[in-house]
Amino acid sequence: GNSVTQMEGPVTLSEEAFLTINCTYTATGYPSLFWYVQYPGEGLQLLLKATKADDKGSNKGFEATYRKETTSFHLEKGSVQVSDSAVYFCAFAKGFQKLVFGTGTRLLVSP
Amino acid sequence: EAGVTQFPSHSVIEKGQTVTLRCDPISGHDNLYWYRRVMGKEIKFLLHFVKESKQDESGMPNNRFLAERTGGTYSTLKVQPAELEDSGVYFCASSPKGQPQHFGDGTRLSIL
Predict the structure, then answer these.
(1) What are the beta bridge partners of residue A89?
(2) What is the pLDDT of residues B4-63, one digit of tens each?
(3) What's A67's DSSP letter?
(4) What angle do CA B38, B82, B52 make, to 5 degrees?
(5) Distance linking the first and last C-alpha atoms of chain A
(6) How does DSSP classify residue B12?
(7) Which of A36, A56, A59, B44 gets the most CB atoms within 10 Å of its CB?
(8) How far apart are CA A77 and CA A80, in angstroms?
(9) pLDDT of residue B1
(10) Across the beta sheet with A75-77, what order do the strands follow?
(11) Which of B101, B98, B105, B97 is nearest to B37 (CA)?
(12) What whole-number distance in Å separates Cα of residue B51 and Cα of residue B76?
């Protein structure tokens, strides 16, 4: 069935370190792919998206590339900041309909 | 523009009681979704409204859950009677057609 698998956290990094959060999906067809972020005490915010194979979504220094051949959408950032500490959710949807989410990965960045 | 707002932010009730959650979508957004996250697991889809009509309610767990969207504006999600396993965070999201969803801050529901 449809599902998203993302790496378990927490991921603990020092400020300015490189970040990768892996995400793979199982779905039929060509879904749209998303990363959402939940900062402490807040709701989910769309971080970036990609709607077709080889598209790269980017925002706030984060990037993720839609890899159809590996059904992956890994999140990367070259230099994390303390303010990036949050829970990151990978998700997909068919035509912007209901989202299928992963379990979330908590990122903790220390000064 | 005002975002998606949810009320209450936190509700604590006893097993067997009734609770009603409310969601006010962004003005003009025809699509409204309910999701919930239980015990730190994945966020799961509950149902989808297009205006006042239920487009997809395949994620509703059982008939103790009732969602409405009167007049295609705000939506309510009622749980009656509440059970322990209903505890979690309930998110509402809205979107225009063909656009990504905007989420509210969620309602944390605790069943004692």
Answers:
(1) A36
(2) 999 999 999 999 999 999 999 999 999 999 999 998 789 999 999 999 999 999 999 999
(3) B
(4) 80
(5) 41
(6) E
(7) A36
(8) 6
(9) 67
(10) A19-21, A75-77, A62-65, A56-59
(11) B105
(12) 13
Tokens in use for A11? 């991921």
- Residue B75 is encoded by which pair of tokens? 């939506």
Mutation for A interface: B97, B101, B107, B108, most A CBs within 10 A = B101
Question: Which residues does A96 contact at the CB level (< 8 Å), separation at least 6?
Answer: A32, B95, B98, B99, B100, B101
- For A62, phi and psi rounded to 5 degrees? -90, 145
At A41-93, the pLDDT tens digits run 899 999 999 999 999 999 999 999 999 999 999 999 999 999 999 999 999 99
* Stretch among A25-29, A33-37, A65-69, B6-10 having the lowest mean pLDDT: A25-29
- Distance from the Cα of A43 to chain B's closest Cα (Å) equals 4
Which amino acid is residue A91, in one-letter code?
A
B29 to chain A, any CB pair closer than 8 A? The answer is: no
- What confidence tens digit (pLDDT) does each residue in A62-74 have? 999 999 999 999 9
- What would the two tokens of residue B12 be? 């604590």
Is A31 touching B (CB cutoff 8 A)?
no
